[in-house]
Amino acid sequence: MPSKINHLSSVEVEINVEVSWDDISKDLDRTYQELARTSKIKGFRPGKAPKHVLKQVYGKKVMEQVSANMVEAGILSAVSEHNLAPVAPASVEPPTIEHGKALKFTAKLEVQPEIEKVDISGLKANKPSVKISAKQVNDELEQLRARQADLVATDEKHKAKSGDIVTLDYAVALEGVPRQDLSTQNRAVELGGAGLLPEIETGIEGMRINESKDIELSFADDHGDEELRGKKATCSVTIKQIQQKQLPELDDEFAKDCGEFETLKALKDDIKKQLEHRAEHKAESELQESLIDALIAKNPIDVPPSLVNQQHQAMLRDFIGFYQSIGANAPLSEEIVKDMQPKAERKVRTALLFRALLKQEKIEVSDKELENKLAEIAERSAKHIAKVKAELGAEKLESLRSQLFEDKLLEFLKEKATITESKATKSQENVDE
Question: What is the pLDDT of residue 424?
Answer without folding.
Answer: 52
